[in-house]
Amino acid sequence: MINCPRCNQVVIENSAFCHQCGLSIKEDCQSCTHCQQLNWKQEVICIHCNKNLVNQKETILPETLSALEDATKALAFVKDGFHSYLKQYLLDFGKETQINAYESLLYLEDCKQYLHSNHEMMANQLIQFQKEKLLDQDKLQSFLFPKYEAQIDYFFHHFTGNLNKNTPPEAILFYSHLNAIEVNLPQLVLDYLALQWEDERFYSNQNEIPTKKWNHAQASFLPLPEEETLLFLCDQTIFGSCKEGFAFTTKGLYWKAHFNAAAHIPYAYLREIVLKEWLSINGHYFHVNASLNEKVFKLLRKLRLLFA
Known about the structure:
single chain, 3 domains, 5-stranded antiparallel beta sheet, 3-stranded antiparallel beta sheet
């Protein structure tokens, strides 16, 4: 059976569209040559079997690292890479109709100075890495992407207020330059979600969860292994049974949405994170509310980098 990457329903063989959600199979999807399942067209790694896809999206990495030996070329490369990264971020964030509006803010004097100083520093670091023969394609990507993500977080918080319904919590900027070893994971999750501004029922301490609720959550969507620790649990049921909701643990995200099967994705296997009216996480449906969907989008992107 081949499943739709948006709604996860079975796609009829040779169909041009998903009969359930209307997704265009030809325009928006690609098939994995290993498991034959459908993936979003922009994916590089199959969200089902984690194999490399044949039709890889264009990356921002150069065909040769020799371009990074020249200061002018290195700076141009870093700046071009940032613009490509930002555009893809905005597409994934559901802002495709506002890309020009966001990009125009990059020319504000304070924003230009912030980005130029950061990109100049990155270019100098890359030149030094290249001189010392420390770079390959994978290391280049792992160097650039966390820094681009941090710059976008700063850009969103300081320069895009008029375009955003929900301003990202300022606390997330603290984590911009921390790696997986340096991060306090429980605090990171709470800071990104900023639950003090939300109406959802949540628990950040397993000992505070009523036994009946905990049993329901475990049976329904949260079969927590012994090696994992619960960081956060949100009860999304109307009457508080905790049979539907979502949970972050030390290793992954668990959830069950209304009328959907339970899902679980380890942070190390996070691939596709796309926000529309809901979140698509590796092709699985996730939804809380508009505000929390945005926060979870940003949190999952951060966890994807930390656990890569």
